[in-house]
User: Fold this.
Amino acid sequence: MATKLVTRDASRTANNRAVHSTVFRKVLMSVTGLFLILFLLMHMFGNLKLLIPDVGMQEFDEYSHFLRTFLYPMLPYRFFLTLFEILLTAAVLIHVEAAVRLTFRDYEAHMGMGRYLKQRYLAGSFAARTMIWSGVLILLGVIYHLLQFTTQTITVGYEGSVEPHMRVVLGFQEWWMVLVYGIWVGLVSFHIYHGFYSAFCTLGARVGAFSEKVIKVCSVIVCLLVFFGFMASPLAIFFGLVTA
Ligand code: HEM
Assistant:
């Protein structure tokens, strides 16, 4: 009898631990995800500078230069940007680690549940069920993006090294670049559509039917803002409205 009680208590503790670590990971995923969305919105507004008539290109390059010289010479050159890059990388790593663990835990927990697993699968939205896969494709896209626009290891439309606005203007004169970026930015927006909603629910903002509607509407607005905000410059460049 005593042994049975001890065993039940021990398993309950293990179960509690699992639930708590799942909740903890979901909170981590939500906080890092919202931070990454904030970065994306900043990046998107920076890119929109290209559309400003006459001074757009110059402002775009100045903004890129400002990121490197912010607080210089009080702090070393590129100090702020390096700190920001470390924070961004840490947020991505924490986000990915939590996503992978939660996906495996979910999979293991529902192994052998047969029809229940099928019912559960059908219950989630398409965006929710494909989060892990859209996440993987986004990550591959980020690697390509950095190789192209930051390190210029891959160059499109030019050779060697050019100013930031020229990397974008020359690159998006190619139709396939507009298509590839359209698909990638589409995936990012789709990921955000579910991620934004899910993060606010995890953080306890969904307290009733009204708040649920507000979060849903906001997630649609952010998703559309990211898609059209990022794609505005590539489309304007491709259709000749912005030229070098
Ligand atoms: C059509 C859309 C986009 C364009 C034209 C664009 C353009 C650029 C350019 C020109 C840079 C280099 C800036 C510089 O060196 O000063 C850059 C950096 C970067 N972009 Fe984008 N970007 C786009 C979308 C995205 C998206 C959707 C993401 C994330 C999912 C992203 C993530 C990054 C990151 C992480 C950096 C490096 C920032 C750093 O240097 O610390 N970009 N982008």
